[in-house]
Structure formats: structure tokens, C-alpha cells
Design a protein that fits this description.
The chain is α/β, with parallel strands linked by helices. It has nine helices and seven strands. The strands form two sheets. The chain has a four-stranded parallel sheet, with helices on both faces.
């Protein structure tokens, strides 16, 4: 079960897991019916879509319950759904905006885990939360988003301890700069998208942005028996963004 699976990293997770033969259910506020049907046609796995706003605990809990009713099991929960307010100072962020961001990015992870765990315990399953490198190194003009992702990483570690006795592994993936539609929209809002993209890609030692599929393959690994002795880890998929020293004044003029 994947939250926010209609686009970006969530959509890549749905595709990668289906290609591995999994039965996938993803939810999103955007319609993902056609995408789910496409993935099922491609196979070898199957995919279905549920409309759900993850900021609603009732709707999210019901979506997971409906998934279990339909398939009689739940092996993996991927808490991917999240959003950002874009690059803005704290002065320009209202309390209500931060509260709404928290409900989408953090509360949804808590609610989904709470709803899924009774079934995951039966299967000795896994939870994978999508955090961010921003939780570790901060984020330029994005303090609200960084705070929510810090909470996701902390929740991951604490829940891994709590669920170890039940055989449920809980891990997180912390992506860096990933080439998604949301990333493009944020760049366009900031001013000069090409200049900003060049700057962002230059933050990575590998010299490029990550692709959603690269993050999805990390999730597939963490969900598999190949990662059977890994729990409580926040695995960074960043191209080395956080390594070494770099300029602190070279922000793009469009910022």
C-alpha cells in the first residue's frame, strides 16, 4: 500500500513493485485509475487505485482497511505522500500552512502505520517512510518542510524499536534532489528554473539529480528479504549531497 502513488516517487514505487510481481494498491488525491490499469496491463504484478486525502485520518484508515478486505493481507506500507511549501522564509509561512503541512507529511505516516500494523504483524511485514535529506542537513528557505521530515525520520527509528518484538521492520529512505514534477513546479515558482536546476544538480557529487525509480528501487530492497536484518535505518539516496564542504553563498540569483 503506497500513499501518494499517482506521481513522482510514489508512482515510481508502484511501477517498480509491479515489475517485481507485487500486488500494489496506491492512494492519492489525484486520479490514478488509468495509471493503475496501465501497470496491471504491463504486469507481471497487479495494481489498483483508491482516491484518498491522507490528511484525513478517517479516509486513510478506511483506504487501508479496504485494501486488506480486497486482498486478505498486507505485507508492506510505503508512506510516501507529502508536499512542500516551496522555497520561502519562515516569515512568509503561516501557522495554518505549517499545521496543514504537518498533517500531510507527518500525521499521515502515524495514522497509516497505526491502521496497517495489525495486518503487518501477521505477515512480519515492513513499513518504509519517505523522509528527506533535509531532515539531516536542513533546507534552504524550507524550514517547515525540513521539520516535518525530521519528524518522519524520528518516528521511523522509534517505531522500529517498538515493533521489533512483532517482527515488523521499519525503515526510511531520505532522498536528495530528485527529478519530479513537484520539483519542477517549485523551481518554476522560484524564478529561473534552469539556473536553479543547475545549482541544485551541482550539490550532488555524482553531478546529477536522482530519478524517482532510483528511490523506488531502494524501497523495493528494504521491503525484501535481502534487507531482513535492517530496521530503524534512514537510508540516504542523495548522490552524496551531504558529503564534504561546499559554498555557503552560492545561491542562485533567482532565489
Amino acid at each position: 500500500f503506497i500513499t501518494g502513488g499517482a506521481r513522482g516517487i510514489g508512482a515510481a514505487c508502484a511501477r517498480v513493485f509491479c515489475e517485481a510481481g507485487a500486488t500494489v494498491v496506491f492512494c492519492d488525491v489525484q486520479d490514478g485509475t488509468e495509471y493503475a490499469e496501465e501497470l496491471t496491463r504491463r504486469g507481471p504484478g497487479r495494481c489498483s487505485f483508491q482516491h484518498c486525502d491522507v490528511s484525513s485520518p478517517t479516509a486513510l484508515t478506511e483506504a487501508i482497511a479496504a485494501t486488506v478486505r480486497a486482498h486478505d493481507r498486507l505485507d508492506c506500507l510505503i508512506n510516501n505522500a507529502a508536499r512542500s511549501l516551496g522555497w520561502r522564509k519562515i516569515d512568509d509561512t503561516s501557522v495554518q500552512e505549517f499545521r496543514d503541512l504537518w498533517e500531510t507529511n507527518v500525521l499521515s505516516c502515524f495514522v497509516a502505520a497505526q491502521a496497517a500494523l495489525p495486518f503487518l504483524r501477521e505477515r512480519k511485514g515492513t513499513i518504509i517512510n519517505i523522509s528527506s535529506i533535509a531532515a539531516e542537513v536542513g533546507a534552504w528557505r524550507n524550514s517547515a518542510y525540513a521539520a516535518t521530515k525530521g519528524a518522519v525520520s524520528s518516528l521511523t527509528k522509534a517505531l522500529a524499536i517498538e515493533e521489533a518484538e512483532n517482527g515488523v521492520r521499519v525503515n526510511a529512505v531520505a532522498p536528495g534532489i530528485v527529478d519530479t514534477a513537484a520539483q519542477l513546479a517549485a523551481r518554476q515558482e522560484a524564478g529561473d528554473p534552469e539556473e536553479l536546476w543547475s545549482f541544485l544538480e551541482g550539490l550532488n557529487w555524482l553531478g546529477r539529480s536522482g530519478m524517482p525509480e532510483e528511490v523506488a528501487r531502494v524501497c523495493l530492497f528494504l521491503s525484501s528479504n535481502a534487507a531482513s536484518f535492517i530496521t530503524g535505518v534512514v537510508l540516504q539516496a542523495t548522490g552524496g549531497l551531504e558529503l564534504g564542504f561546499g559554498t555557503k553563498g552560492g545561491v542562485p540569483s533567482s532565489g
